[in-house]
Amino acid sequence: MSADHVHPAHDLAERLARADAFAVEHDLTLTPLRRQVYELIVTAARPIGAYDLLAALEPQRGRVPPTTVYRALDFLVENGFVHRIESRNAFVACCEIGKPHQSQFLICERCGDTVEIPGEELAERLSATPPAHGFEVHKQVVELTGLCGDCKTKDHNPDKEHEE
Ligand SMILES: [Zn+2]
Ligand SMILES: [Zn+2]
Questions:
Q1: Counting ligands in written order, which one lies closest to the CA of residue 106?
Q2: Residues 82-112: pLDDT tens digits?
Q3: Domain 101-164 is in which class?
Q4: What per-residue confidence (pLDDT) applies to 86?
Q5: What's the CA-to-centroid distance between 96 and ligand 1, angstroms?
Q6: Which residues does the record give as Zn(2+) binding sites (predicted)?
Q7: For residue 57, is pLDDT > 80?
Q8: What 3-state DSSP class applies to 15?
Q9: Which architecture characterizes domain 1-96 according to CATH?
Q10: 151 in a labelled binding site
């Protein structure tokens, strides 16, 4: 881990302020809808999909056309505000906004808890192999599924009831 590692900001206000500052620095327009979608993703405890976002937006904005939300999501992904979890077709807020990076994701298959592990080393090693096969990589996704610490503990503790 590098010395200038920035701690992820867990506080919503802090994360929104960071996103606003990043947008200004990079001349990106965080429209009210984009900002609202970002806020919903930050607030969600688990990766959230487009349809859940649409449902969450409805009380405040009425029915938003899905394409509008998809465009907002594309913007947020392209500019590093959020990451797309391919295996779940859902989105999580980036833990280090403003620092371009490759990430790996640990996804709990029981509760959906998702942890982002930024890591260039693995990404570099992965991208070193394909050219030898004449292969051109367009997208690299590393998602590991399993059980998070909490769910694993429940598994090993028969006294605790399993959540359904
Ligand atoms: Zn990230
Ligand atoms: Zn879990």
A1: 2
A2: 999 999 999 999 988 877 788 899 999 999 9
A3: alpha beta
A4: 94
A5: 5
A6: 108, 111, 148, 151
A7: yes
A8: helix
A9: Orthogonal Bundle (1.10)
A10: yes
